[in-house]
Inverse folding.
């Protein structure tokens, strides 16, 4: 449905030239969303997909261990959209203080994302509302170190930014001027809190994501925080019991269409096309997450069966196996500290797990040997392959 532009342009002067900055209208859209073209049925499918995801996640033997890796996968994917080229293995090596195979700044940026996500989820679990204060806190963690640390972490911007191009005059989009950011974000916060009217949560997440990206309230990290906002909202409103839905892979796969739709909404008010895309993203992503969960469950069951055949050595080997669930790349020393087993016992367990084809040694040395739970990492790596035409938006 075509409406009118969902905001107004104002002339600004920045970096020595004039440009047109866009100030979005408050949400929800007017006139209201048109549900007559099958859009409601699409959102019903999306809700069913989320329900299946919640159900299968409850079958995990230790949900928190799986979430540990799933959050890291999302951190890799979301950062990848911004041009960061790193992998889950690089991040795990970084967390072990080993040498990753990519620039240190790349992997530190992903580590910051994990910390930012965990901070937001922890605050929500503690009863803190999803608010501008919390978004600034999360942003402060996101940009705490490395690239972006000089870009006012935790503060709304006080200077003009733009998306694409080398200056506002040749950019793809110019967000609101800095003196309007607080007002625009205040209106977004009211919408998140169901003012002026109540909005179903999944629709709210879809609309709020576009609005956040349009305001682009920070100097850096807007894309990552805008994608994280979706999951935080779904978790806060108990649509998801666990943070298992991340749309970064879908947005990465369809990134050109994704960016086109954001502009179409601003220019023509066609929210329906965006909502159809968003619902498809939820359906596809939730289905992929269900498949990943089932693969993980099958892997764990199969590996535990193999380990159970070790006889008296099985109990210790199962302890080491469980430690690999928490951190699929580990040194023998870390495994000793994590399990409380003696170094000799851990080494015997590792030898057994290697023989069974469950873990693989990454080093060839007598001390500080590094081992990988290879198949687990392969399953979690699905979809994180680096494409050749990653869109880079570092504003």
């Amino acid at each position: 449905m075509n409406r009118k532009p969902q905001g107004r342009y104002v002339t600004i002067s920045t970096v020595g030239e004039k440009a047109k900055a866009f100030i979005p209208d408050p949400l929800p859209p007017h006139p209201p969303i048109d549900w007559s073209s099958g859009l409601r049925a699409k959102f019903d499918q999306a809700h069913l997909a989320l329900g299946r995801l919640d159900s299968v996640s409850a079958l995990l033997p230790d949900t928190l261990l799986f979430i540990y890796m799933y959050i890291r996968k999302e951190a890799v994917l979301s950062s990848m959209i911004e041009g960061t080229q790193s992998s889950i293995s690089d991040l795990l090596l970084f967390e072990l203080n080993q040498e990753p195979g990519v620039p240190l700044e790349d992997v530190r940026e992903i580590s910051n994302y994990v910390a930012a996500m965990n901070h937001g989820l922890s605050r929500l679990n503690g009863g803190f509302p999803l608010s501008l204060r919390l978004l600034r806190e999360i942003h402060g963690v996101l940009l705490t170190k490395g690239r972006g640390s000089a870009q006012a972490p935790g503060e709304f911007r006080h200077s003009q930014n733009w998306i694409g191009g080398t200056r506002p005059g040749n950019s793809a989009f110019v967000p609101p001027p800095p003196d309007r950011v607080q007002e625009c974000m205040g209106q977004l916060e009211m919408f998140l809190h169901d003012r002026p009217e109540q909005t179903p949560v999944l629709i709210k997440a879809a609309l709020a994501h576009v609005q956040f990206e349009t305001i682009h309230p920070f100097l850096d990290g807007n894309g990552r925080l805008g994608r994280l906002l979706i999951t935080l909202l779904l978790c806060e409103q108990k649509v998801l019991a666990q943070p298992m839905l991340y749309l970064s892979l879908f947005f990465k796969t369809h990134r050109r269409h994704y960016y086109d739709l954001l502009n179409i909404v601003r220019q023509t008010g066609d929210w329906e096309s965006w909502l159809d895309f968003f619902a498809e993203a939820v359906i596809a992503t939730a289905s992929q997450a269900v498949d990943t969960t089932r693969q993980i469950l099958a892997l764990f069951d199969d590996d535990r069966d193999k380990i159970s055949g070790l006889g008296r050595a099985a109990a210790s080997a199962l302890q080491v196996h469980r430690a690999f669930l928490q951190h699929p790349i580990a040194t023998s020393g870390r495994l000793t500290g994590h399990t409380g087993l003696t170094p000799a016992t851990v080494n015997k367990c590792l030898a057994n797990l290697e023989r069974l084809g469950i873990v693989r040694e990454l080093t060839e040395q007598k001390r500080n040997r590094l081992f990988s739970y290879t198949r687990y990492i392969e399953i979690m790596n699905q979809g994180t392959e680096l494409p050749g035409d990653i869109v880079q938006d570092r504003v």
The radius of gyration is 23 Å.
